[in-house]
Amino acid sequence: MENTMVFEEPMTAEKCSGHLSSVEDAIYVIGGKWKLKIIIALHENGNIRFNELQRIVAGISARVLSNELKDLELNGFVKRVVHAEQMPVVVEYISTDYSRTLKPVIMALSEWGRKHKKNIREDLF
């Protein structure tokens, strides 16, 4: 397997720095243990209440889920919908159109992860 990236034109230090900065920004927004798991759960389940989301994202505490949802909402990936007309008040979380722009990234990461796991197993056994 070849580990080189092919660019259309030579990589300058300035372009390299720009790419690194962009990747750093992306990782800052969606990085960490839980954010992509939450985004994927919302994509797959549609409108979902907090407790149900916590059950789906196994292992996450209520406090961490709350903080991650606030962060995802600030960055435009999640919308919090409050149904105040119901008693008790119902709060649902939904993924935004903007969060769906991550689908190609998630699919590429999934494919890469599958290949990586296969390579590791082949190297070990």
TrEMBL record:
GO terms for molecular function: DNA binding. PANTHER family: TRANSCRIPTIONAL REGULATOR, TRANSCRIPTIONAL REGULATOR, MARR FAMILY. This is HxlR family transcriptional regulator. InterPro entries: HTH_HxlR, WH-like_DNA-bd_sf, WH_DNA-bd_sf. Residues 16-121 form the HTH hxlR-type domain. It comes from the Bacteria. Keywords: DNA-binding, Transcription, Transcription regulation. Transmembrane segments: none annotated.
